[in-house]
Amino acid sequence: SPRPQKSTPIEPEVSFVVGAAEPVQVNTKAIEEKAENEADPFWGMELSKERRVTHLWDQSPAHQAGVKVGDTVVNVSGMDVKNKMSAISQMMISKVGQPAMMMILDSATGQKEQKFLKPMTCQPEYAASAKIFYNKNKHFRQGPNGPEGGPGGAPSPPANNARP
Description:
Elements: E1 14-16, E2 25-27, H1 28-38, E3 45-47, E4 53-57, H2 61-65, E5 72-76, E6 79-80, H3 84-93, E7 100-105, E8 112-117, E9 141-143, E10 146-148
């Protein structure tokens, strides 16, 4: 008897705006294409003058790629970087949703490691696409001493209201 064919799920190209009075259909593919060409890329980390990662946004592209607070960025998209400004300049050339690479000096091992990620954007006009939009108000910022504050960097709730 013939074997059943395996179907490949198709990623939807539309989504609906939540909270609208009536459902509003949005073409997410068009939003993602526009973001690739026009949006500011967000990698999800903050650097010191010496290119050391001082803060990392939880579940950001850099965090998901395995970057840690304390690592040092030495190369972005094939270009060696000597300071914070050269690293940021190279990151800003990247395109939202498109693969990017960086080389870090691992703070724990002292070894160079390649990290691959896809930058997102924090610009609200792209919020209809969860694939490319990063909402800082829903994530924690990690510092050298662990999470700093609540979502969006807001002050942490009192200990008796701690969340799991």
